[in-house]
């Protein structure tokens, strides 16, 4: 398919059900909007349901709202139970919501805010919803990462919650690296099942509310450079939309902007950092995530073999 992939390339989505986290604004809103306009039934899974309803009113199509606070495992479980009661199936789970460069703080469960929200919340949600996807041919779990997975990024197993020494940039990098490692390990586990696949995407540098916590020292130069290095949320959502809908997409692939340094441009396949492909680390992260969240995936999704 052409590298100039746009929303015009999205196949008809009638009959498909999509759940998009963080869909009341920014990339999530644009993702939900595009899917609904192509016929999907879309659930906006959002922390603030008033804002979610306002967003839904701006979208043409079959759109509903579900309360979901990824900083609370109780909320994740409640949301998953509600979705399971109202949806017969899920074709697309778009793990989009996230926070970036937050000051040191914790989720309601005591997890470092970025790791807890960006990775652990989505890990738990996916595990709780996966059996609504496994019977559905062509279903996909799409998790949104970032080029930040390359910046000061590692999985700090000796201090996953950054209690000893906090770096907002390093913690963000860890969470986005975890998003990719989760995708790759999930895909290996799904491969034996043959229906659902796991895919990742990143938006490049998009002008969204996500950057509101950027450190002051970086904010001014980034603002000055913004016209050159950022793209609209609608463009930033394209890699996610291609990962979710392109018929040629395969499990374990990663989409990002096709321009220089993957900053902006139409989506194409990209390669993540060498660290993200470390199978032993992916498996260790999976076990840690299960232990921290108390969520285990369906028993018929087998653990992968040790490398």
TrEMBL record:
GO molecular function: oxidoreductase activity
CDD domains per record: retinol-DH_like_SDR_c_like
Keyword Oxidoreductase: yes
Keywords recorded for this protein, A-Z: Oxidoreductase
InterPro entries listed in its UniProt record: NAD(P)-bd_dom_sf (IPR036291), SDR_fam (IPR002347)
Short name of one Pfam family: adh_short
Family: Belongs to the short-chain dehydrogenases/reductases (SDR) family.
PANTHER family: PHOSPHATIDYLINOSITOL-GLYCAN BIOSYNTHESIS CLASS F PROTEIN, PHOSPHATIDYLINOSITOL-GLYCAN BIOSYNTHESIS CLASS F PROTEIN-RELATED
Protein known as: Short-chain dehydrogenase
Protein species of origin: Actinoplanes awajinensis subsp. mycoplanecinus
Lineage: Bacteria, Bacillati, Actinomycetota, Actinomycetes, Micromonosporales
